[in-house]
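Appendix B. Raw example, untouched.
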Amino acid sequence: MPDPVAVNSMFGRIAHRYDLANRVLSAGIDVYWRFRLLNAVQRVHPANILDLATGSGDVALALARGLPAGRQILGVDFCVPMLAEADLKLSAAGPLRSQVRFQQGDALALPLPDGSFDAVTIAFGLRNMADRHRCLTEIRRVLRPGGTAFVLEFSQPWPLVRPLYRFHLRKIAPAVAGALTGDRSAYDYLGTSIEAFPGREDLSREFLEAGFAAVESRAMTLGVVALHRARS
């Protein structure tokens, strides 16, 4: 499992160019992946949402823009430089500032009461957790009964494209992102973490082991990414 100190340091080093690297490496498809996440959240009509591993705040702010006015979104991350980027975006978000707030917190021990959210989202953050089972049980704890967790994460692509995808993760992505951020080692780690992450079926079993009542998942972009929806 990832070392939380190393992961925190890594994201702190690349925070200032993180969004740019994401757009370039995904050829902009990451915007579509987050749009699919937003659509899924819209269907459950949550009044308050926790965006875990919020990073630079893209998902939290997209939720505020895409959901009816008055919804409350809390973004939590343990990396202070990433939260600084999120706060910069929020300061320019006009009226959305009344709906969104960011705070530092550990996803493995959330400083939040039981049953306090209708929905929890986490986009591309679960694979960086030092203990996935503990993170999933924390998500379930802070969800109200019948609430929904949405996990957007890299997955295992279809077998036909897997060799090309691995070449991209091992060779192309670290070189390109290293040039953009000045930190190739961070993207060597990210590629390794993606390759080691479980596929849709195995991750669905982990949700059930954490106490969720039902799980469904959808593959996107040749299986490279999956969106899991789990009911507490």
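End of appendix B.
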